[in-house]
Every structure is written in structure tokens, then in C-alpha cells.
Amino acid sequence: MQANQDKNTIREIVSFIKAQENNLRCKLPILAQQNSLGLALLLFSVLGFMTSGILYFYGLIPAWVCIVLGALSTSITHEIEHDLIHMQYFKTNSIMYHLMMFLVWIIRPSTINPWYRKSIHLNHHKTSGTQQDIEERLVGNGTKSHFLRLLVICDGLLGLILRTKQFSKEIKGYNFLRLFNAGFPLTTLYYIIIYAFVLFHGANFILESLAIATDYPAWFMSLVDYMNLAMVVWVAPSFLRSACLNFVTSSMHYYGGVYNLIQQTQVLNHWAFIPFQLFCFNFGNSHTIHHFVPGQPFYIRQMISKKVNAFMQEKGVRFNDLASILAANRFRTSDNL
């Protein structure tokens, strides 16, 4: 009986979302230019990312402003990539499609290449909330240890290395090398820069604290200058964006006790998540809509989210179930609370 009720509720939610989208498209005919809108938004985010880097290079803005502006720009780019995975832009123009896929990766090096991510994201929609959902598990969803979860959210590579034995046992077809190689060369370079930056400046801080003199060769310090520049304009913005997104998405997706679309996600729009939402384009407030209707551009989800969220809440979709985060994201009914 409950299963039939849930199926009816899911149909009602899907119908409501599509109706809201149709109403919006009727009011705004420009939304029919989907390819152009997607490309324009991508170019806008790339321009914002490049501008922040150039302003920092010429000393017009401090490092923290460059990092924040870069992260805000790449948050848009991530949503574009998500739409591309679901074939929302240039479906019949392979050159433009793959060009956009390349652009969304080059300014977001913390993420594996979007062509490989496409396969694990589509698998996410089929297996959300289960052991087989490798996409969400990679970013900490379902992790019981809070320390390990924090590490995974911030450092995906180290988290992958630490959990590869567990993943091999639990996830069908899991292959560490295949996943690791999906980051070459951009994600690989991203982690080389992070580890080199932390190692050099950490060691240098210790040496200076101990009053130990250091005399680095000029060529080495030149490399350090390039590393510092890359860290501010390319690596740190991606680190900030991905850490915020990883925290939000791993918190809003349920893990275990999931049997249908209603139970896969909750809506996170609690005020405490606002700082994180800023750097992942309001993901926690709108992503649940995507699970019910995947084939929808991200900007439409944002525009209809207020009405849709109110409707979903009436229909039993959970909102701000913060206790689930402390319970390794398990979907809990009244019987297992």
C-alpha cells in the first residue's frame, strides 16, 4: 500500500515540476534558445574566472578576493557540466558539446574528466542511496567517521586511496587505476600543486621557526613563484568550490534505507548552509528537483524551486534533516529513528 502511495506521489511531483517548467517557458520565450544560453553562461563563468586571475596577477586584488571570485565562477561551470552530462546543450553538435566539456574541466581541475564522470553520474541516478553509488561515496556520503568524512570532502585523492580496499569489496566493477587515470592530466596536476605547496611552505615555516637558514637556488624559487600563482588563480578556487559542494551534496543525499525517489534526497535550505551554498550555486536547495526531473537546465530549476519546494514539502519530501548527517546519511523512518 505504501509503495503505491509513493509511486502516486512521485508522479504528482514530476507532473508539478514539468508544469512549472512549461509555464516558465511560455512566459520567457528566450528559454527556447537553450544551446545559446548554456554557451553564454559557460563563457560568462570562464570570463569571470580569467578576469579574477588577471586582476590578481597585476596586483589589483588580493589573493583571497581572487580565490572567492574564481570559486563563484566555477560554481556556475559545475552546473553547466551537470547539464552537459544530461545532454542539455548541443545534443546534435558534437564539436560544440565536447568543447564545452573541455572548458568546464579546465577551470575545475579538482574534478575528474567530465567524460568519465558522465558514466558515474548516470549510475548515480540508478543507484542513489546504495553501496553502488560511487559518485556520492567518493565525496563522503554514508561515511560514519566524521574525521574521514572531512578529509574526503577536502581531499578526494587521499580519501580514495584510504578507502580503495573497501570500495573494491563493495562496489561492482570498481577499479582504482581507471578512476585515478580519469583525472590525468588536469586533476593530477591539481594535486601535485596542492601537495607541493603544503610541503614547501610547511617545511619552510618549520625551518624559519627554528631559525635555520635556508638558501634556495634562483631556479627553484622561480618554480615556487609559479606554484604560488597557480595555487591562487587555479587550484584554490577549485578547492573551495569542490569542498563546499562535497559537503552539501554528501549531506543532502541519503545512504541506506532508500527505496524510491522520495527517499533519495532531502532539501537543504537551512541558514547554516548559506556560506556553502554560495559556492555550489544553491545546490542543496534545488538538487532534489533534479532527481525527479533530470532533463532540465540548472537555471530553470533555480527559477521554479520556490514553488516546487513548497509542493514537495507538502508531499512528504524531507527538508533540513540535519540529524541524518550525524547518522551517516541513513534514511530513517519512524520505526528506526
TrEMBL record:
<keyword id="KW-0472">Membrane</keyword>
<dbReference type="InterPro" id="IPR005804">
    <property type="entry name" value="FA_desaturase_dom"/>
</dbReference>
<protein>
    <submittedName>
        <fullName>Fatty acid desaturase</fullName>
    </submittedName>
</protein>
<dbReference type="Pfam" id="PF00487">
    <property type="entry name" value="FA_desaturase"/>
</dbReference>
<feature type="transmembrane region" description="Helical">
    <location>
        <begin position="89"/>
        <end position="107"/>
    </location>
</feature>
<keyword id="KW-0812">Transmembrane</keyword>
<feature type="transmembrane region" description="Helical">
    <location>
        <begin position="176"/>
        <end position="198"/>
    </location>
</feature>
<feature type="transmembrane region" description="Helical">
    <location>
        <begin position="28"/>
        <end position="49"/>
    </location>
</feature>
<keyword id="KW-1133">Transmembrane helix</keyword>
<feature type="domain" description="Fatty acid desaturase">
    <location>
        <begin position="61"/>
        <end position="321"/>
    </location>
</feature>
<feature type="transmembrane region" description="Helical">
    <location>
        <begin position="218"/>
        <end position="240"/>
    </location>
</feature>
